[in-house]
């Protein structure tokens, strides 16, 4: 029988894969870097919210991250704002 911690860990791995395989390389780097940094400490509710965010189109996420467009008020959550403000560290 799989316990909740195993389910949560499986969810984290699945979300990391989805975040790093977006389709637009820039979003692979932003969303994937964010996922690698934040998924290990996210609550179950945050994991669910992140899963919903991954359904948003890459073009929209990239436009928001590059400040070409503003995030619509209805979508402006702390987690989404954290994602679009995330900048990967390429120095390693």
Structure write-up:
By secondary structure, this protein is mainly α. The protein has one domain: DNA polymerase, domain 1. It is built from five helices and no strands. Helix 1 runs antiparallel to helix 2 (25-38) and helix 1 (4-20) packs parallel to helix 3 (44-53). It is globular and about 45 Å long. The termini are far apart. The mean pLDDT is 92.
Query: What is the number of E strands?
Result: 0
How would you sum up the major sheet?
Answer: none
Q: Per CATH, what is the topology?
A: DNA polymerase, domain 1
Whole-number count of domains: 1
Q: Assembly type of the shown chains?
A: single chain
Head-to-tail CA distance between termini: 39 Å
Gyration radius from CA atoms, angstroms: 13 Å
Total helical segments: 5
* Average pLDDT: 92
Strand fraction band? under 5%
Short précis:
By secondary structure, this protein is an all-alpha fold.
Tags for this model:
globular, DNA polymerase, domain 1, 5 helices, 92 residues, mainly alpha, 0% strand
SSE topology:
Elements: H1 4-20, H2 25-38, H3 44-53, H4 58-65, H5 78-85
Helix pairs in contact: 1-2, 1-3
